[in-house]
Amino acid sequence: MRKGISIVLGLLCLLSCAKDITKVTIAKTPVPKNFTATDIKVISYNGNDVSCMLFAHRFSQGNLVYFEIVPAFDVEKITVMFNEKGIPTTKRSWGFRGFFAIAPDQKPGTHNFTVTIGTKKIDIPVVVARTPFSVSTIPMDLGKFSKKEYLESPEVLEFIRQCTEKKQKAFATHYNDLIRGRAFHPRDVHEVNSPFWAKRVYKLHDSISGKTQTVERIHRGIDLNGNTGDPVYAMLDGIVVLAEMLFYEGNMVIINHGNGMFSYYMHMDKLYVASGDTVVAGQLIGAVGSTGMSTGPHLHVSLVVDGVQVNPMSVVMLPIRD
Ligand SMILES: [Zn+2]
Fold it and tell me: What is the 194 CA–ligand 1 centroid distance (Å)?
């Protein structure tokens, strides 16, 4: 009898697992046809002991850098730093690889990418350029999110507190490098509604005093155009560490890509993944929407590396290999 039940359960599990695999939808192409920022800059170093290559869309503020290090002899461990900050690396069959962020507020000028193998230390200069981030001075009205009495009501404050706790828990998760290949664009069309690191101004109305203040905020991601229901794809391989409705973010997905890299997607209409799911680059994870603090359907996407925000579009064309 027991054996019979376990066989049935085993079969049910097999069936449901098989169903899950067929449900996964992958984007047809890694980048939409109208995505034109496809050139990649390279810095290379070739020494007797080691060769290094650094790749970036631009070596400028707010960009992600991908690097490959190939030692001439077999080594188990190397130490890598950018601007004296340690960077995690992953050992592959061909060498080591990793990522680092050029912070949006990184001082322009020459910074060192330092590789230490045994007793040998190599400094590779990286010239960081200034990025002209946009500034918007027209105060935006965010409907109920521009009303102080709504934002400060006890129920809302309690919900915001719970959401903050959930996000902190998600960003505190740790995995080794989960990336197996190239990144995908998160949409099937590339149209930017609001650029990365733009300075924006919001209205905040106090109905008791009758006064309207303005609040300045930095846009910690990019807003991509879309209609409600349009596809949202995972940018890189990883594990979903949050997938639910939050106060400001609306329906949000946070993916941990390992080694301190996270991407997140906001304001979605529908979510097709759950916390704990393993996803691959280009996998359909949700549908564009206007949930949370949003004035119309769009996708907000962000990319964080070791706590530093970078333009999520800067990962798209990097020649990442397994
Ligand atoms: Zn946004």
Answer: 7
